[in-house]
Specification:
Layout lengths: L3 H5 L22 E3 L3 H4 L4 E6 L9 H14 L4 E5 L3 H13 L2 E7 L5 H9 L3 E5 L3 H13 L4 E2 L5 H7 L1 H10 L5 E5 L4 H15 L8 E7 L4 H4 L21 H11 L2 E5 L1 H15 L5 H15 L8 E6 L7 H7 L11 H11 L2 H7 L3
Parallel strand pairs: 2-10, 3-4, 3-6, 4-5, 7-8, 7-10, 8-9
Antiparallel strand pairs: 1-2
The structure holds ligand F0G.
Length: 363
């Protein structure tokens, strides 16, 4: 049974005697060694951190469990967030578990189907905003500042605290920090959280090294790369369709203190990585998650030498979140067959090489 991040890392989290400690099974996600992409890219030690294995299918659960615990400690009646989908799914689930109300503001028509389905199923109060994520977040910040409802976007420091536990897990699994950490950047809370986690572990003497933080925004939603907010952010990776990230400055600090980069990848590069990850590694991440792998591929193409280096790509959310994208962007290898064995055999024979076909037919 997973003990959850509040229990496992309670000494390093804002947990006191009044804080309820509970878990829906968040954290302790797999760190999977790449079998194909890594070697092909000249990086023998490449790992994927599968954050889609969290209870609601994204990394948000790590921070949400802390934010909800602190909201309960403060006797909050409910929570509110703006979201491109995953934060709202996570808030909705933890509120359902704890008996709180979740009000979620989501940009109308811009949230992936699976995430909307989650918010609905978990019983969140859904406010569809006729505007983008940045507009929704501005509204939530203002509303929660003046009303007794807890804001659970990553401007809530407890969210970042919880999310830093992913860095602890990587260091615990590898025995030290990796050389490079590749991560998608949207509202920029997660890159901030990972950096904090690695720095804290280093200060505690639990690691000898610190990673370079390699953050990637989508080209059409790359305010940090451009150095200015993007009024109308556009990308197929809806989770990171954000033009004015709340944790902009801390993300820049993570980049600069670690000697890393925050760069942009195009939608085509994201889609290429999305397909490669699923078809060559068996890992189905959502498009935003593939930005980390797209970034790795881009850096490699631009000459980054990864020989002898250990790298981790964060796969932030499950591909099941966005089924429309999978169906519309991959060439499915499907064929209709009559319901009999001959029809099935003929399909299989067609897909074999001539030599294999001969063997099969015993000739
Ligand atoms: N990957 C996924 C799957 C996300 O859902 C998000 C953010 C990110 C990456 C980027 O993380 O914002 O900390 O830089 N999703 C937020 C949401 C914005 O509302 O679910 P970040």
């Amino acid at each position: 049974m997973g003990i959850g991040v509040l229990e496992r890392y309670r000494d390093l989290l804002p947990v006191n005697e009044e804080t309820p400690v509970f878990s829906m099974g968040e954290g302790d996600t797999p760190l999977v060694r790449s079998r194909r992409l890594g070697p092909e890219l000249g990086c023998a030690d490449l790992f994927f951190k599968l954050e889609g294995c969290n209870p609601t299918g994204s990394f948000k659960d790590r921070g949400m469990v802390v934010a909800i615990a602190k909201a309960m400690e403060a006797n909050s009646v409910g929570v509110m967030c703006a979201s491109t989908g995953n934060t709202s799914a996570s808030a909705a689930a933890y509120c359902a578990y704890c008996g709180l109300t979740a009000w979620v503001l989501i940009p109308k028509g811009e949230v992936a189907l699976g995430k909307l389905a989650q918010a609905m199923a978990y019983g969140a109060r859904i406010l569809l905003v006729d505007g983008n994520f940045d507009a929704a977040l501005a509204l939530v910040r203002e509303f929660t500042a003046n009303n007794p409802i807890t804001l659970v976007n990553s401007v809530n420091p407890h969210r970042i605290e919880g999310q830093k536990t992913a860095a602890f897990e990587i260091a615990d699994d590898l025995g030290d920090a990796p050389d490079y950490l590749f991560i998608p950047v949207g509202n920029a809370g997660n890159i901030t959280a990972y950096w904090r986690g690695f720095v804290e572990y280093h200060q505690l003497g639990r690691t000898e090294t610190l990673p370079r933080m390699m953050g990637f925004q989508a080209e059409g939603a790359a305010p940090i790369v451009r150095g200015a907010p993007v009024a109308n952010p556009q990308t197929i990776a809806s989770a990171i369709r954000i033009g004015n990230p709340a944790s902009w400055k801390p993300a820049e600090r993570a980049r600069d203190q670690s000697g890393g980069v925050i760069d942009a990848v195009s939608d085509d590069e994201i889609l290429e990585a999305y397909r490669l990850l699923a078809s060559r590694e068996g890992i189905f991440g959502e498009p935003a998650s593939a930005a980390s792998v797209a970034g790795l591929i881009k850096m490699r193409r631009n000459g980054l030498d990864l020989r002898g280096k250990r790298a981790v790509c964060i796969i932030t959310g499950s591909g099941l979140k966005d089924p429309d994208m999978a169906v519309s962007s991959t060439q499915a290898d499907t064929v209709e067959v009559k319901p009999n064995l001959e029809a099935i055999e003929s399909v299989i024979l067609e897909s074999l090489t001539p030599a294999a076909r001969n063997d099969w037919l015993g000739g």
